[in-house]
Design a protein that fits this description.
Layout (H helix, E strand, L loop, with lengths): L2 H11 L7 E6 L6 H7 L6 E5 L2 H11 L5 H15 L8 E5 L17 E7 L4 H12 L3 H14 L1 H8 L7 H7 L4 H18 L9 E2 H6 L1 H12 L6 H15 L11
Parallel strand pairs: 1-3, 1-4, 2-3, 4-5
Helix pairs in contact: 1-4, 2-12, 3-4, 5-6, 5-9, 6-7, 11-12
């Protein structure tokens, strides 16, 4: 389907109805965003979509220069309309994204019904570093510098073979030129926060801190729910989901935390 036809099709989808609200929330990796997304999903009231691939491709392509700003002014709203097309008009559409999609927030200004939330984990870089080591295995300290050098010297070739998602925040990798795992983890951790600062006025709520979400979930949820039109009676269900997920999965891959 040509891009212009796709954009027109998504506009026709909402000629008669659309969800009453859309929540677009972003965070760095390893910040309990999957957990938070589950806490915002409530049958009959809201539907959470987890990291739609189309948005990841748009943000990665924008970071790498394959899309420009004029493209994204049309494509990002169109992608959101396509994602939420089957959400009933009396429910809230929640779009949980990966870290890089915060770059797309400025391109949603034309959709005032979209509310933005940013989840942040203080001192979260070490967790990202551990993920990189797990992904690359025992030779991570050898492989990572090679990947980083290839990306800096032959970016298009690297993206062709490895895909856009590996360096979805490539702009900061090009700026800081990390040389090893720790430096790459820092770039991955800090990039979403820098992007947040650039468009913070578009967010409907102060930064949701990972630590507060885990330690004082009821207070955090009450504040967030007020902003996104979820009723207080959904809080108890969200708290139960928090307890269950932490008991089974832990928090962001860290040791299990007990909720009393």
């Amino acid at each position: 389907m040509p891009i212009c036809d796709f954009i027109s099709w998504t506009k026709r989808l909402e000629m008669y109805e659309k969800p009453k609200e859309t929540v677009f929330f972003t965070s760095p990796p390893r910040s309990a965003s999957t957990l938070f997304g589950a806490m915002l999903h409530h049958k009959g009231r809201s539907v959470t979509f987890g990291e739609p691939y189309a948005l990841a491709q748009l943000s990665g392509g924008f970071s790498e220069g394959y899309w420009n700003e004029e493209d994204l002014k049309e494509l990002v709203p169109a992608a959101v309309r396509a994602i939420r097309k089957n959400v009933p008009k009396n429910q809230i559409c929640v779009i949980k994204t990966s870290s890089r999609e915060i770059q797309l927030v400025p391109f949603l200004k034309s959709m005032p019904e979209v509310k933005h939330i940013f989840l942040w984990r203080k001192n979260g870089m070490d967790s990202i570093e551990r993920v990189i080591y797990r992904s690359l295995g025992e030779y991570a300290d050898t492989i990572a510098p090679i990947y980083l050098k290839i990306y800096q010297s032959a970016r298009d070739t690297f993206n062709f073979f490895m895909g856009l998602l590996l360096f979805g925040d490539g702009w900061i990798f090009r700026l800081l030129k990390p040389q090893d795992v720790k430096e790459a983890a820092f770039c991955t951790y800090i990039a979403p926060y820098i992007s947040y600062l650039k468009c913070s006025k578009q967010f409907c709520h102060p930064i949701v801190l990972h630590e507060d979400l885990i330690k004082n979930p009821e207070i955090v949820l009450k504040s967030v729910f007020q902003q996104i039109s979820l009723p207080d009676e959904s809080i108890s269900e969200a708290l139960e989901r928090l307890k269950q997920m932490i008991e089974f999965l832990g928090v962001s891959g860290d040791p299990l935390v007990k909720i009393s």
